[in-house]
Amino acid sequence: MDYPSELKYTKTHEWVRLEGDVAVVGITDFAQDALGDVVYVELPAVGRKVAAGEAVAVVESVKTASDIYAPLEGEILEVNSALSDKPELVNQSPYGEGWLFKMRFNPSGLSELLSALEYQKVAQAG
Amino acid sequence: MRTTPLYQAHLALGARMVPFAGYEMPLQYASITAEHRAVREGAGMFDVSHMGEFWVRGPGALPFLQYVTLNDVAKLRVGRAQYSMLPSAQGGVVDDVYLYRTAEGEYLMVVNAANIGKDWAHLVALSQGFDVELENASDFFALIAVQGPQAVGALQGLTDTDLLSPRKNDTFMGKLAGKWVRFARTGYTGEDGYEVFVAPDEAEAVWEALRSVGVTPCGLGARDTLRLEAGFPLYGHELTEETSPLCTPFAWVVKAQKDFYGKEALLGQDCGQRLVGLALEEGVPREGYRVLHGGEEVGRLTSGTYSPLLKKGIAMAYVRAELAGPGTRLEVEVRGRALPAVVVELPFLRR
After folding, report:
1. Is B102 helix (H, G, I), strand (E, B) or coil?
2. CB within 8 Å: B225 and A62
3. Distance CA A4, CA B190 (A)
4. Residues in A touching B335 (Cβ below 8 Å)
5. pLDDT digit string, tens, across residues B125-176
6. Which of A15, A16, B11, B54 has the most CB atoms around it within 10 Å of its CB?
7. What residues contact residue B121 under an 8 Å CB cut-off, 6+ apart?
8. Residue A58: its pLDDT value, please?
9. Is residue A3 part of a domain?
10. Which chain B residues touch A37 with a CB distance below 8 Å?
11. Dihedral of the CA atoms A44, A45, A47, A53 (nearest 10)?
């Protein structure tokens, strides 16, 4: 399992990449592996205001559907439209082309996010 | 939790194991979709050793089986197999089964793993008064299903027994990779192939021989998506003690001209709801989701998945009988959204 050290993580298996005042969000290598073949991704509406921990997207594999939570408070700026045709990108490139959405965020929540090392312990605990 | 004779082989392959019907079984090895494709395009194999096997022997075997199953056992010649169901007293289904006539006065019944105890008690109770001997041989068989357009060719490479000439539903003994097995040209995927009954201590040798000729190990995940595409029912979902087989596309199993247990109750039922196939253009349908018509609930999904070959959601559901006709437009409620669904004839995938 790969957990890039430059990313931040949540206990619910999302990752966050900070690009200035924008946060890019996806699901971790651990999460995509646990889900199995992703076949459908339901993404939030652009412009939607979200609270930290709010369910905002759904990733469906052959076997199951899994809620994706906003890692921070803020507003959805953009969603990865490539996933509607190629949901398997979530499996193939969870930290790259398989990103889910970008959001403007309230930086006060940043301290709640986990480092790669901290997240690794969460993932190992199952 | 019980394990099958192939448990160590599954672990060695890195399978993701899950509890199923009291057994620890492989859900998938690497990818459900890849395993699904292996069966549709090449050859895959499933460990289905958890399924139950009952021997039915004796001069009363035929009349007994005619009484406790729905299909016509009199039509079953030696060396042939048939799909059937065990009717309940109330007109529902105790289990769906496969029945193999292995010799004169000898039949092998294969039952669902989750129902072994229930079926056994049911059959023993009904056997009173029949000159018949029942044996629960579930622990004496491992069972490997080898399925796909290249399955028979792969098997043929491991035996001198002619596997090409037998027809669908034929069954016979032969050697496979040097081990005595029972072959049955049956399966649960909609593909050609054989199910191979083998002694538990020889199962791993057969499994490894099949791997060596390129047969892909497949788990329960692919087994479910394959059977759904093929339009086969799964007991506990499409068939239950509360549902009538007459209200399903599998009503052909019911042979009303013979006498059977619970016949009056079964034939006396009206179908307020009928089992149908549903196809969705968007979204992934799941068991338990509501089926809507004009905003009103008209049924529930009994099974649902994403079809890796059709690349869309497929499901089965009991819906109001007047809405069961192919082409009827309904909706499936997915997380509060009513997504369009259309009633389609089974199977979803025609081979």
Report:
1. strand
2. yes
3. 44
4. 42, 58
5. 999 999 999 999 999 999 999 999 999 999 999 999 999 999 999 999 999 9
6. A15
7. none
8. 97
9. no
10. 31-34, 308
11. -20
Q: What is the pLDDT of residue B158?
A: 98
Query: Two tokens at B151?
Result: 């399955």
Higher-confidence residue: A1 or B223? B223
A125 in any annotated domain = no
For A41, list phi and psi in degrees, rounded to 5: -130, 125
**Per-residue pLDDT band at B96 (split at 50, 70, 90):** very high
Inside any domain, residue A119? no
Express each pLDDT in B273-330 by its tens digit: 999 999 999 999 999 999 999 999 999 999 999 999 999 999 999 999 999 999 999 9
Distance of CA B141 to the CA centre of its chain: 17
Chain A nearest-CA distance from B282, in A, is 9
* HEC readout, chain A: CCCCCCCEECCCCEEEEEECCEEEEEECHHHHHHHCCEEEEECCCCCCEECCCCEEEEEEECCCEEEEECCCCEEEEEECCHHHHCCCHHHHCCCCCCCCEEEEECHHHHHHCECHHHHHHHHHCC
Q: Is A36 on the interface with B (CB under 8 A)?
A: yes
Q: Which tens digits make up the pLDDT trace of B238-248?
A: 999 999 999 99
Characterize B311-334 residue by residue with b for buried, 16 or more Cβ atoms within 10 angstroms of its Cβ, and e for exposed.
ebbbbbbbbbeebbeeebebbbbb
User: Are A39 and B284 in contact (CB < 8 Å)?
Assistant: yes
A113 inside domain? no
Rounded distance between C-alpha atoms, residue B99 and residue B226, angstroms: 22
Mean pLDDT across chain B: 97
Specify whether the backbone of A47 is left (phi greater than 0), alpha (psi in -120 to 50) or beta.
Answer: left
Cβ atoms of A57 and A68 within 8 Å: the answer is yes
**Measured between alpha carbons, how far is B165 from B147 in angstroms, rounded to an integer?**
16
Q: How many CB pairs under 8 A join A and B?
A: 33
ipTM score of the complex? 0.86
The total of structural domains in chain A comes to 1
Residue-number span of the structural domain to which A78 is assigned = 8-106
CB A74 within 8 Å of CB A103: yes
CATH of the domain at A61: 2.40.50.100
Neighbours of B103 (CB within 10 A): 10
Q: In which band, very low, low, confident or very high, does the pLDDT at B116 lie, cut at 50, 70 and 90?
A: very high
